Amino acid sequence: MNHLLVIGIALVVMLTILRRELGAVASIAALIALAVVGFYFSSPLLAILFLIGAGVTAVAGLPAYRKTWLTPKIFSLFKKIAPKVSPTEQVALDAGTVGWDGQLFSGRPNWDQLLDNRYSGLTDEEQAFLDNQCSKAVSMCNAWEIGVERADMPKELWDFLKKEKFFGMIIPTEYGGLHFSAKAQSAVLQKLAANETLMSTVGVPNSLGPGELLVKYGTDEQKNHYLPRLADGREIPCFGLTGPRAGSDATSIPDTGIVCKGEFDGKEVLGIRLNFEKRWITLAPVATVVGLAFRMFDPDGLLGEEKDIGITCALIPRDTKGMEIGRRHHPIGSPFMNGPIKGKDVFIPLDWIIGGVDMAGQGWRMLVECLSVGRCITLPSGASGSGRYAVGWSGGFTRIRRQFNTSVANMEGVQEPLARMASMAYIARATVSQTANMIDNGEKPAVPSAILKSQLTEFQRQIMMDAMDVHGGRAVTLGPRNYLGIGFSATPVAITVEGANIMTRCLMIFGQGAIRCHPWVLAELEAKNNDDIDAFDTAFFGHVGLIMGNAARAFTAALGVPTGDNPFDSAAAPYAKAVNRFSAVLGLLSDAAMTMLGATLKQRELLSGRLGDILSNLYLLSMVLKHWHEGNKVAGEEALMRYSAAFLLHRLENAVCGVLDNLPNRLVAFKLRAIVMPFGRCWPMPEDELTSAIANDISSDTPLRSYLIEDTWDTQEDGAVENPLARYNALLRDYDKAEAIYRIASKAYAQGDIPMTALHPEERFAASAEAGLISADEAAFMKTFEAEVLDMLIVDDFAFDEPARHKDKVVLHND
Questions:
Q1: Which among 9, 10, 445, 677 is least surrounded, fewest beta carbons within 10 Å?
Q2: What is the pLDDT of residues 178-214, one digit of tens each?
């Protein structure tokens, strides 16, 4: 019995020391104290083992001893197996900042770092722009006309966007731009997402492109010339990066620029001869100035000794001799301007390089530094906005659509996708707004940008599929009345551009995160590159302490022992506790994978993708908790927050199990499972009660529905195109009154109180009024209400040959 008591005391003491990462000295002192306890309780064998452990810890753990024999051996081995970081990878690693993503890798996240930067909201000027100019722009978008009939936005909309400086949101006011915050840019794009062509057209010039590159790196002459013209739309920019042989692997661009002498404006000057072929370039067909990325060479040494200067970015006016521009691609589902650009022997002066000749060869660094911000905003905001519109449309439609004598929103099979849509829209809104707030506080979140882009556009795809499902026949029939189909068909575009989601998930999130965000890996690699054994000793043994600490934290947290701080209310605290636990799990599994696979982990993309999924779900959940912590907590929001947290934790546990099931060393994987999941999984999908509550809230006129569609286009202005969201909102405001009358009429028909031939709703209401079951006013109300409902359910039909693009090829079967 005494032996078990001593062992129990030893476990508690050592786990406490390891959880807190107190180091070798504390461990040695604890082991000596445990030896004294062992002798006291007549357990000499255990006492001797504790003393041996103290000795081994001293020899291997105290810097004065380990540096003489252990560190050199480990350093020599590390230099042989550590992955090599290519120059392009190093540039990507150096770009951006590490913030909350680093805390999640630490195993003991400091929530104060996240919560100290409260979401500050928009300025009065930004909110006014959102309420007025954005509403006006969306109200000018007829989706069918834009997507099918003209394959472009109308001229008056283009003119309005230029006049109101939509293309100058990131340009400083001294150059005539709006200089909006990242939060405001995100809010604008979310509102414009009612039409995917509009959102893309406005989003791209304010993301990675000439505007941002000029603001950050341009010469004064370039800024003074271009920025005012970009701000007011006199210049429309595009940026040529990808091509037939360089898509997601943008560093492999084969486009060349050779330093040479040539004629420009009648004079011989030193410049660059360009040959390039670009594809999938947004706004290229209408662009007046092209930002071009190319590989710059100086074979004759006209600029210096360096022959391969590297990726460089230059600005090229549309009418430059030798450049072919104007043809269009046809993006699936959305006719936003996108097309190829070609150039053969295009000569440009050196001062067309963005930033001047001093920035030659710095193009890749410029791009990745800007991408960490732009990729956080444009596509994630579009995903969030389109998701919130889809929730508003779907909730309204499923409430007014009646089948089997009830609203389909009451059917559990429909409630499941409705709740999932609401949750994903809620998560997306929380994540984009909170991450934009980080950007406004000076962060350049490189790893979170990959998380937002890949995860939220996947949410967008799922939301749109769910919206199509619950709309049924209303959405699969294209035409002017279909507000959903064109947007649904365009979702693959967001999945593909700015780094395809497959690549982003499998290579970038964990690939960059494991090095950038890990507390010690980057320091170890730098020590190796600098051949600094002292720095390596500090980093490596700090890393060892982190591994042991994460193992202790993951195990004790799985047993229910809280780890880390938890500043949240009772509703959110259980989920913050889970974040603390799985942060340690992420750290432990990451180190296990890197230790087992070394440099080959790069090629194990399935494992890397699952580890990235753990990090992604931790990040998304953290943003949801912060959003809840700072928000107004409208009625019904707690259920949505709980659903969203449980949903993310379920996905997270799927990823953890996927890693454990596929680690190559099965014995180690078995032991890791015993540490991180001693009792198995504990986060199932959200319970049905939450699903039903959320679905009912978003399909009714409730505070939660209003909150989810806040700052979308939900009004119907005179002279504007039809707004289905506004129409659904109006119907829902009257629905409770209508539902009571529906029940009276249905009951009367079932009991034979009204004629059996009264099959249409309108006939039943009229018959019920004649029978004195409802009043004449109620019958009139239902006649108007049901007419509006029917109008929202009707789909389009066309003349036989109208859908055909070439009428002469139509087969007239019954002519």
A1: 9
A2: 999 999 999 999 999 999 999 999 999 998 788 999 9
HEC profile of 473-517: HHHHCCCCCCCCHHHHHCHHHHHHCCCCHHHHHHHHHHHHHHHHC
**207 with 271: CB under 8 angstroms?**
no
Distance CA 386, CA 333 (A): 14
Comparing C-alpha atoms, which of 401, 489, 408, 505 is closest to residue 447? 505
CA distances from 518 to 18, 554, 762 (A): 18, 17, 66
Neighbouring CB atoms inside 10 A of 794's CB total 11
Cβ–Cβ < 8 Å for 636, 395: no
Q: Helix or strand or coil: residue 270?
A: strand
Pairwise CA distance, residues 726 & 724, whole Å: 5
Alpha helical stretches, state H, 41-180? 44-61, 63-81, 87-94, 100-106, 111-115, 124-131, 133-139, 143-144, 155-163
**Residue from 289, 318, 294, 299 nearest 261 by CA:** 299
Supply 140's token pair: 């000018």
pTM value is 0.94
Residue pointed to by tokens 């209401």:
765
Q: Strand pairing of 256-264 and 289-297?
A: parallel
Number of helices (H), then strands (E), in the chain: 35, 9
Taking the C-alpha atoms of residue 127 and residue 129, their distance in angstroms, rounded to an integer, is 5
Mean pLDDT over all residues of the chain? Answer: 93
Over residues 130-152, the pLDDT tens digits come to 999 999 999 999 999 999 999 99
On whether the CB atoms of residues 424 and 624 are closer than 8 A, the answer is no
Angle (nearest 5°) at CA 405 between 400 and 409:
40
Helix or strand holding residue 296 (H, E): strand 289-297
Amino acid at 765: F
- What local confidence, expressed as pLDDT, does residue 240 receive? 93
Active-site residue (options: 126, 164, 235, 498): 498
Q: Phi and psi dihedrals of 631, rounded to 5?
A: -80, 180
What residue ranges of the chain have pLDDT lower than 50?
Answer: none
Structure tokens at 342: 């070609």
Q: 584 by DSSP, 3-state: which?
A: helix
DSSP 754: S
Q: Beta strand pairing status for 406-407 and 402-403?
A: antiparallel
SS3 state of residue 262 = strand
| pLDDT one-digit tens code per residue, 91-113 | 766 777 889 999 999 999 999 99
With both helix axes pointing from N to C terminus, report the angle between 521-530 and 533-558 in degrees, rounded to the nearest 10.
160
Give the contacts of 752 (CB within 8 A, at least 6 positions apart). none
Q: Is position 687 annotated as part of the catalytic site?
A: no
Closest C-alpha among 44, 206, 698 to residue 414? 698
720: left (phi over 0), alpha (psi -120 to 50) or beta: beta
What CA–CA distance (Å, rounded) separates 469 from 531?
Answer: 59
Q: Is the four-CA dihedral 659, 444, 171, 126 of positive or negative sign?
A: positive
**Cβ–Cβ contacts within 10 Å for residue 308, how many?**
10
Residue 289 token pair: 């100035």
Q: How far apart are CA 627 and CA 606, in angstroms?
A: 31
User: Which residue, chain included where needed, has tokens 């350049």?
Assistant: 444
Which of these, 344, 229, 203, lies nearest to 282 by C-alpha position? 203
Distance between CA 112 and CA 329 in Å, rounded?
A: 48
> Which residues fall within 8 angstroms of residue 310, CB to CB, at 6 or more apart?
295, 296, 360, 361, 362, 363, 364
What's the rounded Cα separation, in Å, for the pair 487 and 197?
Answer: 9
